């Protein structure tokens, strides 16, 4: 039986989808979300994008604004496109669970439309890997799946996306909140946003400095008419 969650499976399928996915990705608009994150940074900083794909829109947005950008992805074909489109950024091919940067290496860590491809147990591992590499006062912004996307309060299985069977996994919003808090993050927003005809859970979290302070303590969640992947063709668990 095929292991949809295996890195080899994901790499193979995103290599196959790279060009078509990148063309369609350009139809959607994440600009408002990215502008909000740039405002949190306040000045050009160090940005890590996990599951960067072809480097657009996240890596290109921050690189164009003078940030030092690193993108990580499993797909070699996606990264080849990223190096063409964002030559000023650094791109690394690796499993997200293998990231190992020095403590405090980044001011912002993003992961758009990626973490739901990890098993639930692996999602438990990724947040503690992200937390130490964030600088004190840094921010993290993630897309997570949710009931409105899969039809289940919690889900682990395969869905059809662009004629490909791909893995999806998620917990409930409250469980994600507890995982992030237990990791040490301050959760600034955790909200379902309907974007481009789909609904996903978007999480904005921060790493307090040594005095427990943030660069900017938001009282309202990040909202925007941003975009992501089209809704899968089916939502049954396998």
Give an account of the 3D structure.
- The chain is of the alpha/beta class and 238 residues long.
- The chain has one domain (7-206): Vaccinia Virus protein VP39 (Rossmann fold, 3-Layer(aba) Sandwich).
- The chain contains seven helices and nine strands; from the N terminus they run ααβαβαββαβαββαββ.
- The chain has helices at residues 7-25, 31-41, 58-64, 76-85, 120-133, 147-150, 173-183, and strands at residues 46-50, 68-73, 90-93, 106-111, 134-144, 155-161, 164-170, 186-195, 198-206.
- It has a seven-stranded mixed beta sheet with strand order 3-2-1-4-5-9-8, with helices on both faces. A two-stranded antiparallel ribbon has the order 6-7.
- A hairpin with a 2-residue loop joins strand 6 and strand 7 (164-170).
- It is globular and about 50 Å long.
- Residues 217-238 have low confidence and may be disordered.
């Amino acid at each position: 039986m095929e292991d949809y969650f295996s890195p080899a499976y994901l790499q193979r399928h995103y290599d196959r989808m790279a060009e078509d996915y990148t063309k369609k990705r350009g139809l959607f608009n994440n600009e408002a979300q990215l502008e909000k994150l740039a405002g949190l940074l306040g000045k050009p900083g160090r940005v890590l994008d996990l599951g960067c794909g072809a480097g657009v829109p996240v890596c290109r947005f921050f690189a164009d604004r003078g940030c030092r950008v690193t993108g990580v992805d499993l797909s070699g074909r996606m990264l080849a496109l990223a190096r063409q489109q964002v030559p000023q950024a650094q791109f690394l091919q690796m499993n997200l669970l293998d990231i190992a940067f020095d403590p405090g290496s980044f001011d912002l860590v993003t992961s758009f439309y990626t973490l739901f491809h990890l098993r639930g147990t692996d999602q438990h591992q990724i947040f503690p890997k992200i937390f130490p590499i964030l600088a004190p006062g840094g921010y993290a912004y993630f897309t997570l799946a949710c009931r409105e996307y899969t039809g289940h309060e919690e889900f682990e299985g395969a869905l059809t996306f662009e004629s490909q069977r791909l893995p999806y996994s998620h917990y409930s919003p409250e469980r994600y909140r507890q995982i992030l808090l237990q990791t040490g993050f301050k959760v600034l927003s955790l909200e379902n946003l309907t974007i481009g005809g789909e609904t996903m859970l978007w999480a904005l979290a921060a790493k307090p400095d040594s005095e427990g302070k943030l660069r900017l303590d938001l009282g309202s969640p990040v909202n925007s008419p941003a975009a992501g992947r089209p809704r899968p063709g089916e939502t049954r668990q396998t």
